[in-house]
Amino acid sequence: MATIAVAGAIAQRPGRPGHAWAFLAYLLGFRALGYEVLFVDSLGPGDDPAWLAEAMAWAGLEGCWAALHGEGEALGMPRRRLLEELRGADFLLNVNGFLVDPDLLAASPRRVYLDIDPGFGQIWAEQGLADTFAGHDDFVSVGTNLGGPGCTVPLLDREWIATLPPVPLERWPVAAGGRGFTSVASWRGPFGPLEHEGRTLGLRAHELRRFAALPRQVEAPFELALDIDPTDAADRALLSREGWRLRDPLRELADFDAYRAYVRGSAAEIAIAKGLYVGTKGGWFSDRSATYLASGKPVIAQDTGFGAALPTGCGLLAFEDPDEAVAAVEEVLARPAKHERAARALAEEHLDARLVLGRLLGRLGAA
Protein backbone atom coordinates (compact mmCIF):
# COMPACT_ATOMS: atom_id res chain seq x y z
CA MET A 1 0.00 0.00 0.00
CA ALA A 2 1.27 3.50 -0.86
CA THR A 3 2.54 5.71 1.94
CA ILE A 4 2.45 9.47 2.48
CA ALA A 5 4.71 10.97 5.14
CA VAL A 6 3.82 14.23 6.88
CA ALA A 7 6.41 16.22 8.83
CA GLY A 8 5.25 18.77 11.37
CA ALA A 9 5.44 20.00 14.95
CA ILE A 10 3.13 18.52 17.58
CA ALA A 11 5.54 17.75 20.44
CA GLN A 12 6.61 21.42 20.53
CA ARG A 13 3.20 22.63 21.75
CA PRO A 14 1.87 20.29 24.45
CA GLY A 15 -1.65 20.85 25.71
CA ARG A 16 -2.72 22.55 22.48
CA PRO A 17 -4.99 20.09 20.65
CA GLY A 18 -6.10 22.71 18.14
CA HIS A 19 -2.52 23.09 16.95
CA ALA A 20 -2.08 19.32 16.73
CA TRP A 21 -5.33 19.00 14.79
CA ALA A 22 -3.83 20.97 11.90
CA PHE A 23 -1.54 17.97 11.25
CA LEU A 24 -3.89 15.16 12.30
CA ALA A 25 -6.48 16.28 9.74
CA TYR A 26 -4.05 15.57 6.89
CA LEU A 27 -3.03 12.20 8.30
CA LEU A 28 -6.62 11.08 8.81
CA GLY A 29 -7.63 12.40 5.40
CA PHE A 30 -4.87 10.58 3.55
CA ARG A 31 -5.64 7.40 5.48
CA ALA A 32 -9.32 7.69 4.49
CA LEU A 33 -8.15 7.76 0.87
CA GLY A 34 -6.45 4.40 1.37
CA TYR A 35 -2.87 5.47 2.11
CA GLU A 36 -0.58 4.36 4.88
CA VAL A 37 0.55 7.45 6.78
CA LEU A 38 3.61 8.39 8.79
CA PHE A 39 4.11 11.49 10.93
CA VAL A 40 7.62 12.81 11.57
CA ASP A 41 8.31 15.28 14.37
CA SER A 42 11.58 16.83 15.56
CA LEU A 43 12.38 17.17 19.25
CA GLY A 44 14.21 20.05 20.87
CA PRO A 45 14.73 21.12 24.48
CA GLY A 46 11.43 21.31 26.34
CA ASP A 47 9.44 19.41 23.70
CA ASP A 48 7.08 16.70 24.91
CA PRO A 49 7.08 13.38 23.03
CA ALA A 50 4.41 12.07 25.43
CA TRP A 51 2.02 14.70 24.07
CA LEU A 52 2.82 13.58 20.54
CA ALA A 53 2.11 9.96 21.50
CA GLU A 54 -1.18 11.04 23.11
CA ALA A 55 -2.23 12.97 19.99
CA MET A 56 -1.49 10.05 17.70
CA ALA A 57 -3.30 7.59 19.97
CA TRP A 58 -6.37 9.85 20.14
CA ALA A 59 -6.46 9.90 16.35
CA GLY A 60 -6.06 6.10 16.15
CA LEU A 61 -2.61 6.44 14.59
CA GLU A 62 -0.52 4.48 17.10
CA GLY A 63 2.66 3.18 15.52
CA CYS A 64 2.47 5.73 12.69
CA TRP A 65 4.93 8.28 14.01
CA ALA A 66 8.56 9.02 14.76
CA ALA A 67 10.16 11.85 16.74
CA LEU A 68 13.76 12.82 16.04
CA HIS A 69 16.43 13.74 18.57
CA GLY A 70 18.55 16.03 16.44
CA GLU A 71 20.39 13.86 13.94
CA GLY A 72 20.40 10.89 16.36
CA GLU A 73 17.91 8.12 17.06
CA ALA A 74 14.17 8.56 16.79
CA LEU A 75 11.40 7.73 19.23
CA GLY A 76 8.50 5.71 17.91
CA MET A 77 10.64 3.75 15.46
CA PRO A 78 14.37 3.25 14.83
CA ARG A 79 16.01 5.82 12.59
CA ARG A 80 17.00 3.12 10.10
CA ARG A 81 13.38 2.07 9.68
CA LEU A 82 12.31 5.70 9.39
CA LEU A 83 14.76 6.21 6.53
CA GLU A 84 13.37 3.11 4.80
CA GLU A 85 9.80 4.33 5.25
CA LEU A 86 10.66 7.71 3.73
CA ARG A 87 12.45 6.13 0.77
CA GLY A 88 9.35 4.07 0.03
CA ALA A 89 6.83 6.90 0.48
CA ASP A 90 5.07 8.52 -2.46
CA PHE A 91 6.14 11.88 -1.06
CA LEU A 92 6.93 13.80 2.10
CA LEU A 93 4.54 16.64 2.95
CA ASN A 94 6.80 18.97 4.94
CA VAL A 95 4.56 21.42 6.82
CA ASN A 96 6.17 24.88 7.01
CA GLY A 97 9.51 23.17 6.35
CA PHE A 98 9.64 21.92 9.95
CA LEU A 99 11.75 18.89 8.99
CA VAL A 100 15.33 20.00 8.32
CA ASP A 101 17.27 16.76 8.88
CA PRO A 102 19.34 16.49 5.67
CA ASP A 103 19.48 12.68 5.60
CA LEU A 104 15.74 12.31 6.00
CA LEU A 105 15.02 14.96 3.39
CA ALA A 106 17.44 13.31 0.98
CA ALA A 107 15.78 9.93 1.57
CA SER A 108 12.40 11.29 0.48
CA PRO A 109 11.88 10.80 -3.28
CA ARG A 110 9.67 13.87 -3.47
CA ARG A 111 9.53 16.77 -1.02
CA VAL A 112 6.30 18.77 -1.02
CA TYR A 113 6.27 21.98 1.02
CA LEU A 114 2.94 22.74 2.74
CA ASP A 115 2.63 26.38 3.78
CA ILE A 116 0.01 26.85 6.52
CA ASP A 117 1.10 30.40 7.43
CA PRO A 118 1.00 32.14 4.04
CA GLY A 119 2.92 35.38 3.95
CA PHE A 120 5.35 34.82 6.79
CA GLY A 121 7.76 32.44 5.04
CA GLN A 122 7.54 34.23 1.71
CA ILE A 123 8.35 37.63 3.21
CA TRP A 124 11.19 36.15 5.29
CA ALA A 125 12.65 34.64 2.12
CA GLU A 126 12.24 37.85 0.09
CA GLN A 127 13.98 39.86 2.81
CA GLY A 128 16.79 37.34 3.21
CA LEU A 129 15.81 36.48 6.78
CA ALA A 130 15.20 32.75 6.23
CA ASP A 131 14.41 30.43 3.35
CA THR A 132 12.39 27.45 4.51
CA PHE A 133 11.42 26.56 0.93
CA ALA A 134 14.83 25.50 -0.37
CA GLY A 135 15.25 21.86 -1.29
CA HIS A 136 11.58 21.15 -2.01
CA ASP A 137 10.10 19.99 -5.28
CA ASP A 138 6.51 21.29 -5.01
CA PHE A 139 4.86 24.13 -3.11
CA VAL A 140 1.36 23.95 -1.63
CA SER A 141 -0.31 26.68 0.42
CA VAL A 142 -3.54 27.28 2.29
CA GLY A 143 -3.17 30.79 0.92
CA THR A 144 -6.03 30.32 -1.51
CA ASN A 145 -5.52 33.73 -3.13
CA LEU A 146 -1.76 33.66 -3.72
CA GLY A 147 -1.18 35.47 -6.98
CA GLY A 148 -4.80 36.58 -7.04
CA PRO A 149 -6.46 40.01 -6.92
CA GLY A 150 -5.17 42.23 -4.13
CA CYS A 151 -2.67 39.69 -2.83
CA THR A 152 0.74 41.08 -1.87
CA VAL A 153 2.40 37.83 -0.72
CA PRO A 154 5.65 37.40 -2.69
CA LEU A 155 5.48 34.38 -5.01
CA LEU A 156 9.28 33.95 -5.09
CA ASP A 157 9.14 32.79 -8.73
CA ARG A 158 7.51 29.55 -7.61
CA GLU A 159 4.30 27.89 -8.73
CA TRP A 160 1.94 27.60 -5.77
CA ILE A 161 -0.77 24.98 -5.50
CA ALA A 162 -3.65 26.31 -3.42
CA THR A 163 -5.53 24.02 -1.05
CA LEU A 164 -8.21 24.45 1.58
CA PRO A 165 -7.71 22.96 5.05
CA PRO A 166 -9.13 19.41 5.09
CA VAL A 167 -11.55 18.31 7.78
CA PRO A 168 -12.48 14.63 8.32
CA LEU A 169 -16.24 15.11 8.61
CA GLU A 170 -16.77 11.93 10.62
CA ARG A 171 -14.68 13.42 13.43
CA TRP A 172 -16.82 16.57 13.54
CA PRO A 173 -20.50 15.57 13.30
CA VAL A 174 -23.23 18.19 13.48
CA ALA A 175 -24.02 19.37 17.00
CA ALA A 176 -27.35 21.14 17.41
CA GLY A 177 -27.68 24.31 19.42
CA GLY A 178 -24.80 25.80 21.34
CA ARG A 179 -24.04 28.97 23.23
CA GLY A 180 -22.07 32.05 22.35
CA PHE A 181 -19.77 33.36 19.65
CA THR A 182 -16.45 31.73 20.49
CA SER A 183 -12.99 30.97 19.18
CA VAL A 184 -9.70 29.44 20.30
CA ALA A 185 -6.65 31.57 19.67
CA SER A 186 -3.18 32.70 20.69
CA TRP A 187 -2.77 36.39 21.48
CA ARG A 188 0.64 36.67 19.82
CA GLY A 189 1.88 33.30 18.52
CA PRO A 190 5.46 32.33 17.59
CA PHE A 191 6.09 34.99 14.91
CA GLY A 192 6.57 38.73 15.21
CA PRO A 193 5.23 41.56 13.01
CA LEU A 194 6.88 42.13 9.63
CA GLU A 195 7.54 45.17 7.47
CA HIS A 196 6.47 44.66 3.88
CA GLU A 197 5.95 47.12 1.05
CA GLY A 198 6.05 50.06 3.46
CA ARG A 199 3.49 48.60 5.89
CA THR A 200 3.76 46.96 9.27
CA LEU A 201 1.87 43.66 9.22
CA GLY A 202 0.88 42.69 12.72
CA LEU A 203 -0.43 39.72 14.66
CA ARG A 204 -3.80 38.64 16.01
CA ALA A 205 -3.22 40.85 19.05
CA HIS A 206 -3.29 43.97 16.89
CA GLU A 207 -6.49 42.91 15.14
CA LEU A 208 -8.28 41.89 18.34
CA ARG A 209 -7.68 45.36 19.73
CA ARG A 210 -9.52 46.77 16.69
CA PHE A 211 -12.55 44.62 17.43
CA ALA A 212 -12.39 44.70 21.23
CA ALA A 213 -15.67 46.63 21.57
CA LEU A 214 -17.72 44.08 19.60
CA PRO A 215 -19.50 42.53 22.63
CA ARG A 216 -20.83 45.95 23.66
CA GLN A 217 -22.38 46.44 20.22
CA VAL A 218 -24.42 43.23 19.98
CA GLU A 219 -26.68 41.48 22.49
CA ALA A 220 -24.90 38.11 22.48
CA PRO A 221 -22.26 36.33 24.57
CA PHE A 222 -18.70 36.49 23.23
CA GLU A 223 -15.97 34.21 24.52
CA LEU A 224 -12.34 33.52 23.68
CA ALA A 225 -10.27 30.56 24.78
CA LEU A 226 -7.21 32.77 24.58
CA ASP A 227 -3.59 31.82 25.14
CA ILE A 228 -2.30 35.16 26.42
CA ASP A 229 0.86 35.81 28.36
CA PRO A 230 0.67 37.31 31.89
CA THR A 231 2.77 40.24 30.64
CA ASP A 232 -0.21 41.23 28.47
CA ALA A 233 -2.33 42.00 31.52
CA ALA A 234 -3.45 45.38 30.13
CA ASP A 235 -4.87 43.73 27.00
CA ARG A 236 -6.57 41.04 29.04
CA ALA A 237 -8.18 43.76 31.14
CA LEU A 238 -9.28 45.60 27.97
CA LEU A 239 -11.01 42.52 26.54
CA SER A 240 -12.70 41.71 29.85
CA ARG A 241 -13.85 45.31 30.27
CA GLU A 242 -15.39 45.27 26.79
CA GLY A 243 -17.41 42.15 27.58
CA TRP A 244 -15.32 39.23 26.33
CA ARG A 245 -15.38 36.18 28.56
CA LEU A 246 -11.86 34.77 28.58
CA ARG A 247 -10.98 31.15 29.20
CA ASP A 248 -7.55 29.60 29.59
CA PRO A 249 -7.16 26.97 26.85
CA LEU A 250 -4.05 25.48 28.46
CA ARG A 251 -6.04 24.72 31.59
CA GLU A 252 -9.56 24.08 30.27
CA LEU A 253 -9.05 22.78 26.72
CA ALA A 254 -5.79 20.89 27.09
CA ASP A 255 -7.07 17.53 25.86
CA PHE A 256 -8.64 16.57 22.56
CA ASP A 257 -12.09 15.69 23.83
CA ALA A 258 -12.42 18.98 25.73
CA TYR A 259 -11.27 20.95 22.69
CA ARG A 260 -13.75 19.23 20.38
CA ALA A 261 -16.57 19.66 22.92
CA TYR A 262 -15.82 23.39 23.12
CA VAL A 263 -16.09 23.88 19.37
CA ARG A 264 -19.23 21.75 19.11
CA GLY A 265 -20.82 23.47 22.10
CA SER A 266 -20.57 26.92 20.53
CA ALA A 267 -23.32 28.69 18.63
CA ALA A 268 -20.87 30.12 16.07
CA GLU A 269 -17.25 31.17 15.65
CA ILE A 270 -16.07 34.76 15.68
CA ALA A 271 -12.68 34.48 13.98
CA ILE A 272 -10.19 37.33 14.21
CA ALA A 273 -7.15 36.72 11.99
CA LYS A 274 -3.51 37.72 12.24
CA GLY A 275 -2.86 41.15 10.82
CA LEU A 276 -0.43 39.78 8.26
CA TYR A 277 -3.09 37.49 6.78
CA VAL A 278 -5.52 40.41 6.61
CA GLY A 279 -3.02 42.89 5.17
CA THR A 280 -1.61 40.64 2.44
CA LYS A 281 -4.98 39.16 1.33
CA GLY A 282 -3.35 35.81 0.67
CA GLY A 283 -6.59 33.90 1.22
CA TRP A 284 -5.64 32.10 4.44
CA PHE A 285 -8.50 30.11 5.94
CA SER A 286 -8.35 28.51 9.37
CA ASP A 287 -8.36 24.75 9.96
CA ARG A 288 -10.13 25.59 13.23
CA SER A 289 -12.89 27.39 11.34
CA ALA A 290 -13.24 24.29 9.15
CA THR A 291 -14.10 22.24 12.26
CA TYR A 292 -16.72 24.80 13.33
CA LEU A 293 -18.35 24.62 9.90
CA ALA A 294 -18.31 20.82 9.89
CA SER A 295 -20.01 20.85 13.30
CA GLY A 296 -22.82 22.97 11.86
CA LYS A 297 -21.56 26.16 13.47
CA PRO A 298 -21.62 29.33 11.36
CA VAL A 299 -18.29 31.12 11.06
CA ILE A 300 -17.97 34.90 11.06
CA ALA A 301 -14.40 35.46 9.88
CA GLN A 302 -12.22 38.46 9.26
CA ASP A 303 -11.61 38.70 5.52
CA THR A 304 -8.20 37.51 4.31
CA GLY A 305 -9.20 36.99 0.70
CA PHE A 306 -10.63 33.49 1.23
CA GLY A 307 -13.72 34.45 -0.76
CA ALA A 308 -11.75 33.46 -3.85
CA ALA A 309 -12.08 29.82 -2.78
CA LEU A 310 -15.15 29.65 -0.52
CA PRO A 311 -18.68 31.00 -0.91
CA THR A 312 -19.56 33.62 1.69
CA GLY A 313 -22.79 35.14 2.92
CA CYS A 314 -24.54 32.09 4.36
CA GLY A 315 -22.91 29.80 6.92
CA LEU A 316 -19.62 31.63 6.36
CA LEU A 317 -19.71 35.41 6.63
CA ALA A 318 -16.70 37.67 6.05
CA PHE A 319 -16.08 41.09 7.56
CA GLU A 320 -13.44 43.81 7.24
CA ASP A 321 -14.38 46.38 9.88
CA PRO A 322 -16.33 46.50 13.17
CA ASP A 323 -19.58 47.60 11.50
CA GLU A 324 -19.48 44.62 9.14
CA ALA A 325 -18.70 42.30 12.05
CA VAL A 326 -21.73 43.59 13.95
CA ALA A 327 -23.96 43.14 10.89
CA ALA A 328 -22.72 39.56 10.39
CA VAL A 329 -23.37 38.63 14.02
CA GLU A 330 -26.85 40.14 13.86
CA GLU A 331 -27.57 38.18 10.66
CA VAL A 332 -26.61 34.88 12.31
CA LEU A 333 -28.69 35.75 15.39
CA ALA A 334 -31.70 36.51 13.21
CA ARG A 335 -31.55 33.28 11.17
CA PRO A 336 -29.55 30.70 13.15
CA ALA A 337 -31.06 27.52 11.67
CA LYS A 338 -30.45 28.72 8.12
CA HIS A 339 -26.79 29.48 8.82
CA GLU A 340 -26.25 26.23 10.75
CA ARG A 341 -27.48 24.17 7.79
CA ALA A 342 -25.39 26.22 5.38
CA ALA A 343 -22.28 25.79 7.55
CA ARG A 344 -22.37 22.00 7.39
CA ALA A 345 -23.30 22.04 3.70
CA LEU A 346 -20.31 24.26 2.96
CA ALA A 347 -18.01 21.89 4.85
CA GLU A 348 -19.38 18.90 2.97
CA GLU A 349 -18.98 20.56 -0.42
CA HIS A 350 -15.65 22.33 0.02
CA LEU A 351 -13.71 21.06 3.07
CA ASP A 352 -14.33 17.31 3.27
CA ALA A 353 -10.85 15.80 3.68
CA ARG A 354 -11.44 13.17 1.03
CA LEU A 355 -12.35 15.81 -1.55
CA VAL A 356 -9.69 18.36 -0.55
CA LEU A 357 -6.83 15.87 -0.43
CA GLY A 358 -8.06 14.00 -3.49
CA ARG A 359 -7.87 17.25 -5.43
CA LEU A 360 -4.45 18.01 -3.99
CA LEU A 361 -3.14 14.59 -5.01
CA GLY A 362 -4.50 15.24 -8.50
CA ARG A 363 -2.72 18.59 -8.70
CA LEU A 364 0.49 16.89 -7.60
CA GLY A 365 0.01 14.13 -10.15
CA ALA A 366 0.04 11.61 -7.32
CA ALA A 367 -3.59 10.44 -7.31
Describe this structure in words.
There is one protein chain. With 367 residues, this protein is an alpha/beta fold. It has two domains: 3-168 and 353-364, 3-Layer(aba) Sandwich (Rossmann fold), CATH 3.40.50; 170-350, Glycogen Phosphorylase B (Rossmann fold, 3-Layer(aba) Sandwich). The protein is built from 15 helices and 16 strands. It has helices at 17-32, 49-58, 79-88, 102-107, 120-126, 204-210, 214-217, 233-241, 249-252, 256-264, 275-280, 287-294, 322-334, 336-351, 353-364, and strands spanning 3-7, 36-43, 65-69, 74-75, 91-95, 111-115, 138-141, 160-162, 181-186, 194-196, 199-201, 222-227, 244-247, 268-271, 299-302, 316-319. The strands form three sheets. An eight-stranded mixed beta sheet has the order 4-3-2-1-5-6-7-8, sandwiched between helices. A six-stranded parallel beta sheet has the order 13-12-9-14-15-16, sandwiched between helices. It has a two-stranded antiparallel ribbon with strand order 10-11. Strand 3 (65-69) and strand 4 form a beta hairpin. Helix 1 (17-32) crosses helix 15 (353-364). 49% of the residues are buried. The model has no long low-confidence stretch (mean pLDDT 96).
